[in-house]
Amino acid sequence: DAKTTQPPSMDCAEGRAANLPCNHSTISGNEYVYWYRQIHSQGPQYIIHGLKNNETNEMASLIITEDRKSSTLILPHATLRDTAVYYCIAHNAGNNRKLIWGLGTSLAVNP
Amino acid sequence: GAVVSQHPSWVICKSGTSVKIECRSLDFQATTMFWYRQFPKQSLMLMATSNEGSKATYEQGVEKDKFLINHASLTLSTLTVTSAHPEDSSFYICSAMLAGGQRGKSSYEQYFGPGTRLTVT
Fold first, then answer.
1. Counts of helices then strands in chain A (DSSP H, E)
2. I want to staple A84 with a disulfide (CB 3.0 to 4.6 A). Which of A37, A44, B81, B98 is the partner?
3. Mean pLDDT of B18-29
4. Which of B109, B117, B118 to mutate to test the interface with A (most CBs of A within 10 A)?
5. pLDDT one-digit tens code per residue, B63-91
């Protein structure tokens, strides 16, 4: 799986959009971009994933650049409960189902 | 949908004893489950991949005789920490893979249990 790079920490004001970047410049054509988050002392939670098209669900939006070398996870209206560590993972689950976890971005949503 | 439970949520045991942690997929069948360990302020570290009806595949550096994994059914995998020592104290997390994804995309989404906090005294 391709390596991903994320900023170690970010802050966001409650009610504002949180935009979390991820670089995956060596991503291969059959690797998806997955986003998970982990609230303190809990198991990770799946958020969203995509291949090359932008994706949106009830939790977030995923914007993938045309060259697929980077992506942005958008939480449109961050709440205090969105405070968590967010992990971006480039992964081809068809070949290797193991997820390799980096250190992620620690997002603090402030009142 | 796609709920994974773990039991117990926390456990304290004495050094030298064994502890069993259960991981269940409650509303789907999982042919593959994963076991992770997470130390404070660190990321998840994969310990082993568990496939129903076959032996688990352990990551390098993980002692298979110390961390016994059993995946007897499509909804249950267990991790037994044998002869636990204080350095085994950690947050243990399991995940279950849902093949095909909930949205019909060709992908494999992992759903995680809430974790088990193990403290060995």
1. 0, 9
2. A37
3. 93
4. B109
5. 999 999 998 888 999 999 999 999 999 99
